[in-house]
Design goal:
Elements (H helix, E strand, L loop, with lengths): L3 H27 L11 E2 L17 E7 L3 E10 L6 E5 L13 H6 L3 E5 L9 E2 L7 H14 L5 E6 L1 H12 L4 E7 L9 H14 L7 H7 L7 H8 L9 H9 L9 H10 L7 E6 H4 L5 H7 L9 E3 L6 H4 L1 H14 L1
Parallel strand pairs: 4-5, 4-7, 7-8, 8-9, 9-10
Antiparallel strand pairs: 1-6, 2-3, 3-5
Helix pairs in contact: 1-5, 3-4, 4-9, 6-7
């Protein structure tokens, strides 16, 4: 007769196996999406896609980085303000690109700061590996690291939104000289924290990958507190003329560690542990709705000593994409944080 403990263990094992099968089904079913051409490993969005964005009055800048599998990749970034000004680094997240910082950048520049806002590989004006399996958590950390190293970012204030924090915090704990202070906006460190979290991630993946067309602007619009206007929706969709350009956005849901089997789980857990030694200033800016759900400020406050005594702020009537809901307020709070730390 099976003991209670053994039944619990078998149930957990069965649950993990079913979860793995569920996720694998999505991987096989969705893959690279329609019109994927393996003969074209890297795509580049035509400049004409951005010509109509009248609300993005910033000149594009480019650098090249190297990938061991894909060769040279072109990274786009915005670079505004005085060359000798203190750098405010803006790191975007899923379904967004440097465009989402368009209302924050002028405020920072007017205050005398230099603003650098890169587009992750696969997003914005940056090159886009077409095969979604080229997008891994580690590669994105490495690509961002190479970008910041080439741009000679030192002692910056890093505004990390969503995946900007997932990747940026990995770099911060290993290269703290790059960052003087952190602004943590709707972000965290995904590290597979139990079966409930794994089930939530699995369900979210299926919901996100359900449609043949990955919903870039629709996703953002559905996760804000305010309805986005047509110009903003056009700006969010501009980098993706066809579905095959969306290898990065399509792959991100599968890159979140749901179980210990994900290759990002161990390094992410190690980075989270290293954050116990983060004594530099760090502030948390988040919507009230997200603070009640999976992005509890107390997690960072209990882990990072540098969060003590900082002006953490909750924003009512806003959604996940706070950078679209309250960009002016976020910029002003960031300036206040810099001035007082």
């Amino acid at each position: 007769m099976l003991t209670t403990a053994l039944l619990v263990i078998l149930t957990i094992v069965a649950g993990v196996l079913l979860l793995a099968a569920w996720n694998q089904y999505d991987v096989q079913r969705r893959g690279n999406g329609p019109n994927y051409d393996p003969a074209v490993p890297v795509l580049r969005t035509p400049d004409s896609r951005f010509d109509a964005l009248t609300d993005l009055p910033f000149a594009p800048h480019y650098i090249d980085i190297e990938d061991p599998d894909l060769g040279t990749l072109r990274v786009h970034y915005l670079d505004e303000g005085p060359r000798d000004g203190h750098i405010i680094l803006l790191l975007h997240g899923q379904a967004t690109w440097s465009y989402s910082f368009r209302k924050m950048i002028p405020i920072f520049v007017a205050a005398g700061y230099r603003v650098i806002a890169p587009d992750f590989i696969g997003f914005g004006r940056s090159d886009k590996p077409a095969d979604w399996e080229q997008h891994t958590f580690q590669k994105h950390v490495d690509w961002l690291d190479a970008t910041l190293t080439q741009l000679q970012v030192q002692g910056c204030t890093a505004f990390m939104f969503d995946w900007g924090g997932y990747f940026g915090l990995r770099i911060a704990v290993d290269k703290p000289h790059m960052f003087a202070r952190l602004v943590l906006c709707t972000t965290g460190m995904p590290r597979a924290r139990g079966i409930v979290g794994a089930l939530w991630v699995a369900g979210w993946r299926r919901m996100t990958l359900k449609a043949d067309s990955f919903p870039i602007s629709t996703m953002v619009n559905n996760m804000t507190g305010n309805e986005l206007d047509a110009a903003t929706l056009r700006g969010l969709d501009a980098p993706y003329p066809e579905e095959r350009y969306k290898g990065g956005p399509r792959r991100f849901p599968l890159m979140i560690p749901a179980t210990v089997l994900n290759p990002a789980t161990r390094p992410n857990r190690a980075a989270w542990n290293k954050l116990k030694n983060w004594h530099k200033p760090a502030v948390i800016l988040i919507s009230e709705s997200m603070a009640r759900r999976g992005f509890k400020p107390s997690e960072f406050q209990n882990q990072l000593p540098g969060t003590a005594g900082q002006p953490h702020t909750l924003y009512p009537d806003t959604g996940f994409f706070l950078i679209e809901d309250a960009p002016i307020e976020l910029a002003e709070k960031t300036l206040e944080f810099i001035g007082n730390s």
